[in-house]
Specification:
Helix content: 40-55%
Number of helices: 11
Strand content: 15-25%
Oligomer: single chain
Number of strands: 8
Shape: globular
Distance between the termini: 24 Å
CATH superfamily: Alpha/Beta hydrolase fold, catalytic domain
Strand order of the largest sheet: 1-2-4-3-5-6-7-8
CATH topology: Rossmann fold
Length: 291
Amino acid sequence: MTQHRTVSVNGLDIFYREAGNPQNPAILLLHGFPTSSFMFRNLIPALAEKYHLVAPDFPGFGQSSMPGVEEYTYTFDQLSETIDGFIDAIGLEKYTLYVMDYGAPVGYRIASRRPEKVEGLIVQNGNAYKQGMEDNFWAPIKTYWANRNDAAAIEGAAVMVRPESTRWQYQDGVKDLTLVSPDTWTHDQALLDRPGNRDIQLALFYDYQNNPPLYPQWQEYFRTYQPPALVVWGKNDQIFVEAGAHPYKRDLKNVDFHLLDTGHFALETHGAEIASLIDRFLTREVAPKYN
């Protein structure tokens, strides 16, 4: 059974989902935009018999505290510091890191700071390379980076918090739309629509420009520490396109690489397949350390 918990981290309530025996190999699941640990709601019970799964909500997302932009610095540096504090608060000593979308810049900051904790990587549509950030999606965000106070640039970026954009993220690139529950985008949109959340998301859109300059540092982490990696990438994603998946094979020697015929939120359509790939990967690469 998945348990739903909250822990205090530097005055913030960080909500998290947890399942499985803490004596088993751990998986730390870091979500993307615009969702939360809700994206892992089906994956967690699928793996809980053999693994210890922990999925926190970032501040401003899901059920975690949502301080205003005047009270909390919504940057990826700060999110990573908060999640690092969360890891310490729950006593998580070792884990395989599952990163997706925003989870990648949060998770790779943490992994680079404390590489000894990371036993492996699971990468789902999360960039550590400049390849894959195509202008057809990123152009309005890049315009906002260059013109933060311009009303038209602000509105161009803020399109991504509208209901039609949230739904698009779940449906685009999906072959069989009946596999994607409308609960997904309606759940996420209800949280995006909370007073003050638009400003939070705009702050993170703006700060995203500080992630690509760190890519060389993260790539050096890959080359130096060589964590075994499973790449499960929705190849039809227009946000983090397929080109961003392939460079992992350049810096990591042990990569189990899979392109899936789906879009951004691959777990919604290929959850059972991804769970099976994770189990096979961890059984081979991590579980022997626990026997």
